[in-house]
């Protein structure tokens, strides 16, 4: 995960001098819209936002990561739009959808920030309702909910599969973060309004789609209320969510729940456990089938398992830290670390097998578990040490 440079907190900045009335042009709401290849939705979206909101107290911020001509379409539409439109185009889509939203929040001038999708699945007509509800109820966060009384998700979630994935991930999230989500029926919502003074963007580490969850867990907004809405079918284009976005969500959940380092340790443990299979299988084959003495057999089995672990660690766990060191540099260090424990494991193995008469496979397993924790700490703190970009 890359941590983006932060321009500092935007919380509680006092505009103007004490005793002065607020400036008449103060922006009441900033609508932040992340876009990724949404060229055919822009005109309709702006038209319907203009119909719903007062031009004098509203601004719209698009944060765009498109590979098509969406930015040009936005520029063109902005020229005739009564509401001021700002476009931020990012060269690097750091943090994906969530990263874009946080970037837009930092640029926002409004007292309220409303986040919504560009594809009209979120009806622009509910934007003023979100802000009004927040003001009326003294809330910091207003969640547009498909699951609160009066809301619905049916129209927008086409197909039983998407409904199952959406409902399942909502449930899992509600269980894991139950204390944070007592008042929230739709933590996956992409439609919400936040009072700018309760926002602390420097605390956020956005990763993919679920920016609302990130915000609730890390910023802990005071009062949260919900406004029901009916999730609409997409106006044009297609959804950008994918299987890899699903994996990014699981990673996001693990990092939010355990912290980044412990989440990595968890994955490293899973990889390590998976490595037991090639290790034990190779040992069994060499020792029991080919009759090799258990010490050289265990050493060879270890080499095979370390290769397996390296492949998985390097591609799954540290994919975004690989550029700090060459492939040869990484694999050689990984092999030194992965086999260094043999210095300890082989005598321990000999003690267990020849001294205490423990079975070869059981003894091998015991020594592997002991070396696991030690190796993780060296791996995480030295070989793949985090560095500023
Ligand atoms: N800037 C930027 N960068 N925008 C992105 C990116 C990205 O990497 N990925 C997606 N977007 C934009 C899309 O262009 C769209 O405006 C919005 O984010 C939502 O993307 P969709 O692809 O339409 O997502 P979805 O319909 O599957 O899911 C949405 O609705 C769900 C229910 O409210 C998202 O908002 C989910 O987070 C939400 O749970
Ligand atoms: Mn959508």
Question: What would you note in describing this structure?
Answer:
The longest helix is centred in the last third of the chain and has 30 residues, at 260-289. The chain folds into two domains: 3-242, Spore Coat Polysaccharide Biosynthesis Protein SpsA, Chain A (Alpha-Beta Complex); 260-380, no CATH class. It is built from twelve helices and seven strands. It has a seven-stranded mixed β-sheet with strand order 3-2-1-4-6-5-7. Residues 12-16 have low confidence and may be disordered. Helix 2 (70-79) links the parallel strand 2 and strand 3 (85-89). The protein has 389 residues and is of the alpha/beta class. Helix 8 (260-289) packs antiparallel against helix 9, helix 8 (260-289) packs antiparallel against helix 12 and helix 9 packs across helix 11 (342-355). The structure holds guanosine-5'-diphosphate-alpha-D-mannose and manganese (II) ion (MN). The chain crosses the membrane at residues 265-286, 292-313, 334-352, 358-378. Residues 30-154 form the Glycosyltransferase 2-like domain.
By CATH, the topology of the largest domain is: Spore Coat Polysaccharide Biosynthesis Protein SpsA, Chain A
Cα(first) to Cα(last) distance is: 11 Å
CATH architecture of the largest domain: Alpha-Beta Complex
- Proportion of residues in β-strands: 5-15%
CATH superfamily of the largest domain: Spore Coat Polysaccharide Biosynthesis Protein SpsA, Chain A
Question: Are there runs of 5+ residues with pLDDT below 50, and where?
Answer: 12-16
Bound small-molecule species: guanosine-5'-diphosphate-alpha-D-mannose, manganese (II) ion
Give the averaged pLDDT, no decimals: 91
State the order of secondary-structure elements, H for helix, E for strand.
EHEHEHEHEHEHEHHHHHH
């Amino acid at each position: 995960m890359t941590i983006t440079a932060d321009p500092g907190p935007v919380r509680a900045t006092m505009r103007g001098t004490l005793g002065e009335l607020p400036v008449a042009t103060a922006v009441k709401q900033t609508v932040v819209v992340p876009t990724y290849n949404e060229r055919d939705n822009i005109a309709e979206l702006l038209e319907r936002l203009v119909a719903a909101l007062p031009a004098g107290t509203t601004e719209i911020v698009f944060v765009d990561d498109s590979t098509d001509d969406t930015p040009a379409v936005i520029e063109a539409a902005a020229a005739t739009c009564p509401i001021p439109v700002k476009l931020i185009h990012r060269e690097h889509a750091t943090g994906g959808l969530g990263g874009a939203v946080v970037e837009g929040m930092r640029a926002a001038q409004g007292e309220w920030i409303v986040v919504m999708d560009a594809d009209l699945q979120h009806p622009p007509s509910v934007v003023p309702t979100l802000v009004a509800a927040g003001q009326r109820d003294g809330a910091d966060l207003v969640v547009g909910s498909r699951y609160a009384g009066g809301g619905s998700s049916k129209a927008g979630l086409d197909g039983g599969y998407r409904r199952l994935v959406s409902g399942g991930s909502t449930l899992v999230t509600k269980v894991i973060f139950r204390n944070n989500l007592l008042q929230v029926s739709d933590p996956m919502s992409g439609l919400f309004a936040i009072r700018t003074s309760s926002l602390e963007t420097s605390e956020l580490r956005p990763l993919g789609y679920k920016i609302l969850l990130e915000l609730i867990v890390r910023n802990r907004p005071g009062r949260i209320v919900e406004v029901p809405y009916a999730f609409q079918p997409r106006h044009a284009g297609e959804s950008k969510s994918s299987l890899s976005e699903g994996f990014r969500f699981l990673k996001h959940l693990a990092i939010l729940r355990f912290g980044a380092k412990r989440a990595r340790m968890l994955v490293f443990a899973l990889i390590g456990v998976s490595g037991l299979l090639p290790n034990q299988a190779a040992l069994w084959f060499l020792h029991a089938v080919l009759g090799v003495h258990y010490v050289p057999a265990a050493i060879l089995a270890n080499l095979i398992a370390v290769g397996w672990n390296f492949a998985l660690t390097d591609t799954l766990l540290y994919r975004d830290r690989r550029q700090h060191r060459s492939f040869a540099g990484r694999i050689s260090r990984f092999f030194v670390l992965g086999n260094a424990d043999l210095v300890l494991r082989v005598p321990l193995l000999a003690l267990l097998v020849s001294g205490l008469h423990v079975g070869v496979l059981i003894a091998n397993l015991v020594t592997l578990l002991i070396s696991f924790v030690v190796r993780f700490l060296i791996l995480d703190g030295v070989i793949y040490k985090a560095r500023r970009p």
